[in-house]
Design a protein that fits this description.
With about 290 residues, the chain is an alpha/beta fold. The protein contains 8 helices and 6 strands; from the N terminus they run ααβαββαβαβααβα. Helix 5 crosses helix 6 (about 205-230). The protein is elongated.
C-alpha cells in the first residue's frame, strides 16, 4: 500500500482529519508537561545550592535554622540528627548571580533558593557534619555558629568551639590542596557567625576573631608538638598540608588570612537569632553575596 493512498496511515495522520488534529493536540500538550514535571522539576530540586550549619552545642544553630526558614524564631531542643530545610532569600536581599536580572524575570526567585543543613554540635555526633565536608554536593558555604557570650579567654566553651573550627578548616584546607582541579570544590567560604551579641556578656565581633585565632594557635602548637614527639619532623619532605597542620605549617601565630592560599575565605560577622530584637541582616547579606 503506497503512502499516497487514502487508506495509508501516513495519509491519515497528515491529512486534516479529526484524528490527526486530536493526535497533534495531545502531543502539543503532553510534551511541555512532560519536560516541566519530569525533567525540569527533578533537575531543579537536586541542584539547589546548600549551606552547612556547624558549631558546638547550644550555639544557636537550630534557632537560626528556624529563623531562616520561617522568618520568626521558634523554641528548639538539642539536635540529634541532621535537618535539611529549603530557604529563600528575603525580598530585600538580592543574590549576586541575579544582579543583572530584571525584577520581572520569572526565574528570579529560583536563584534565591537554597538548602540549609543543620548538624548536631555534640562532639559524638559531629561525624554528620564532617561527612558533608568530605563528600559535599552543591555546597556553597559554611556557617560556623559560636555563642559570643560563651567563648571568653580560657573558657571551656572557647576551647570546644576552637577545636571544632580547627578541624573543619583543616578538612577544607586538605580538600583545596588535593582537589585543585575541581571547579565545584575550589572555593567554599566560611562565615563565623558570632551569635547572641545582644547579651551583655557577649564579646564584640573583633574580639571573637582575636580569641578564636589565639586558641587555634594553641591547638595547632599542641598538635604539632604531639607529632614531633611521635618522631615526625616538620622539615621532612612532606608539606604541612599533608601532615595536618593548619595554615602556614604549625609555626607562629595563626590567622584566618593564612587560609587564603588554600582559597578559603573566612569572615566573622555578629548577630543574634533570638531575643527581643533579632538581627541577622549581615548573615543574610553574606548568603546573598555567594548565591
Amino acid at each position: 500500500m503506497s503512502w499516497s493512498q487514502s487508506s495509508s496511515w501516513t495519509t491519515i495522520l497528515l491529512a486534516p482529519t479529526p484524528l490527526a488534529i486530536a493526535v497533534t493536540l495531545v502531543i502539543a500538550v503532553v510534551t511541555p508537561l512532560f519536560l516541566h514535571f519530569i525533567i525540569y522539576r527533578s533537575t531543579s530540586t537536586t541542584s539547589l545550592p546548600s549551606f552547612l550549619l556547624l558549631g558546638p552545642s547550644n550555639a544557636g544553630k537550630t534557632s537560626l535554622l528556624t529563623l531562616f526558614e520561617r522568618g520568626i524564631p521558634a523554641a528548639t531542643h538539642t539536635s540529634q540528627h541532621p535537618l535539611i530545610v529549603e530557604v529563600s532569600l528575603p525580598i530585600t536581599i538580592g543574590a549576586t548571580s541575579s544582579k543583572y536580572r530584571s525584577s520581572n524575570d520569572p526565574t528570579l526567585q529560583v536563584h534565591k533558593r537554597f538548602l540549609l543543613i543543620d548538624t548536631p554540635g555534640h562532639g559524638k555526633l559531629r561525624h554528620y557534619a564532617l561527612d558533608n565536608l568530605i563528600k559535599p554536593q552543591y555546597l556553597k558555604g559554611i556557617f560556623f555558629v559560636v555563642d559570643a557570650a560563651n567563648i571568653s579567654p580560657g573558657s571551656s566553651g572557647l576551647k570546644d568551639a576552637a577545636e571544632y573550627l580547627h578541624d573543619v578548616l583543616l578538612i577544607l584546607q586538605k580538600r583545596a590542596t588535593t582537589l585543585k582541579t575541581s571547579r565545584i570544590l575550589s572555593k567554599i567560604p566560611v562565615l563565623i557567625a558570632a551569635n547572641k551579641l545582644d547579651l551583655f556578656t557577649a564579646l564584640p565581633t573583633a574580639f571573637v576573631t582575636n580569641v578564636l585565632e589565639k586558641e587555634i594557635t594553641n591547638i595547632r602548637l599542641s598538635r604539632s608538638k604531639g607529632l614531633l614527639d611521635s618522631g615526625i619532623a616538620m622539615n621532612d619532605g612532606d608539606s604541612g598540608d599533608d601532615k595536618g597542620w593548619l595554615g602556614d605549617g604549625g609555626e607562629g601565630s595563626f590567622e584566618f588570612s593564612q587560609l587564603e592560599e588554600a582559597n578559603i575565605a573566612v569572615t566573622v560577622e555578629g548577630g543574634n537569632a533570638v531575643g527581643d530584637v533579632v538581627n541577622i541582616t549581615r548573615w543574610w547579606d553574606w548568603i546573598g553575596s555567594i548565591l
